[in-house]
Amino acid sequence: MDDDMRTVRRQKGERKSGDRRTNDDDKRTVKRQKGERKSDERRTNDDDRRTVRRQEGERKNGDSKTNDDDKRTENKEEIERKLEDTRRQVQKEILEKINGLEHQLHRTSIADSGDCPTSPATPLQHSSLMHTERSVHKMLKPPTYDGQSSWSMYRRQFEAAAKANGWTPQEMATSLVISLRGQALEILQSIPEEQQNDYDRIVGALEIRYGHKYLRQVYQSQIKSRQQRSNESLQEYEADIERLIH
């Protein structure tokens, strides 16, 4: 009987000991799980903060790049506006100068025989009368030139008119300046003002820009890109190619 009681007490003790170990294991497991959750939460929070900081940095970099692009665009537009204003101002000054030259040429071309003096002319008056008499015959006005047609052909026309009118080299320079239009007129920007009454100087600048050497490069480029159009006959196509070659 005593043995049975001791056995029962021992078994109860073992069960209690086992229960305590089980409870201790459960507590340790719960503590470990809590620690792991807290560690995971901290890592998650750290990752979230790093992500937020990275996104904020990217946004700031993006804003900075956008601001730089905006500034570059504004600077480019400002430069373009200044260049356009300068071009307009130069063109305005050239047109004003041309108008003045036209007015001057018009005045020198007017001859009023009723105003001629009846008294004997002095050498200076005689020279003035000869100039006035010669001005009466300045009737031929050369066409305008904008750089779109052949410069050599235009120069022949212009010099033929100048010869018929009896123009001096300075008058030829004045008339040529007045006749320029469009891109050809902008050639004057490359010539100093004091040389714009020099006929050979103006012709030289136009020759460089629109002469045979320049046109040959243009025609070679056109030949390379020239294709027969849908409404163009073979004869027309060959004639145009022949024109560009020669």
Automatic annotation (TrEMBL):
Residues 1-87 are annotated as: Disordered. It comes from the Eukaryota. Residues 14-28, 36-87 have a biased composition (Basic and acidic residues). PANTHER family: T-SNARE COILED-COIL HOMOLOGY DOMAIN-CONTAINING PROTEIN. This is Uncharacterized protein. It comes from Aromia moschata.
